[in-house]
């Protein structure tokens, strides 16, 4: 309910799904998208499918459809995922999250010091960036 209320301001709706997907494969696919210059497009679509439509983002057909819709080669994506090429990146990201005590999403780490957890108003980000900018001078 809180997410929906906050999303309304930006025209974003949340489905309130009861299902939780295993996100591992979607994260690996995101790494493939990043390597191919399509991370932001992939990210937007995967979030829409999960949070707005309530789809299972562990589903190969859904991941293939998203990949194709943004101009990625689905066969190459799955081939690279199967080789394990992206596993180390995810381990490193997991370790970074552990080092910052991240236990929920979204979490934003700004300038390696400021941590914003959860959906925050834009003013919180401005304040964090202004603080980081002031510290770098």
Please describe what this structure looks like.
By secondary structure, the protein is mainly α. The chain has 2 domains: 2-99, Glutaredoxin, CATH 3.40.30.10; 102-137, no CATH class. It is 58% helix and 6% strand. The protein contains 7 helices and 2 strands. A two-stranded antiparallel ribbon has the order 1-2. A hairpin with a 3-residue loop joins strand 1 (107-110) and strand 2 (114-117). The mean pLDDT is 89.
Topology summary:
Layout: H1 2-8, H2 24-35, H3 39-52, H4 60-69, H5 74-83, H6 87-99, E1 107-110, E2 114-117, H7 122-135
Antiparallel strand pairs: 1-2
Q: Descriptors for this entry?
A:
two-stranded antiparallel sheet; single chain; 2 domains; mainly alpha; 137 residues; 2 strands; 7 helices; Glutaredoxin
State the helicity in percent bands: 55-70%
Output the structural class.
mainly alpha
- Give the overall silhouette: globular
Query: Superfamily at the CATH H level of the largest domain?
Result: Glutaredoxin
Annotation, overall tally of beta strands: 2
Whole-number count of domains: 2
Here the CATH topology of the largest domain equals: Glutaredoxin
β-strand amount: 5-15%
Number of helices: 7
Largest sheet: 2 strands, antiparallel
Q: Could you give a short description of this structure?
A:
The protein has helices spanning 2-8, 24-35, 39-52, 60-69, 74-83, 87-99, 122-135, and strands at residues 107-110, 114-117. It is mainly α and 137 residues long.
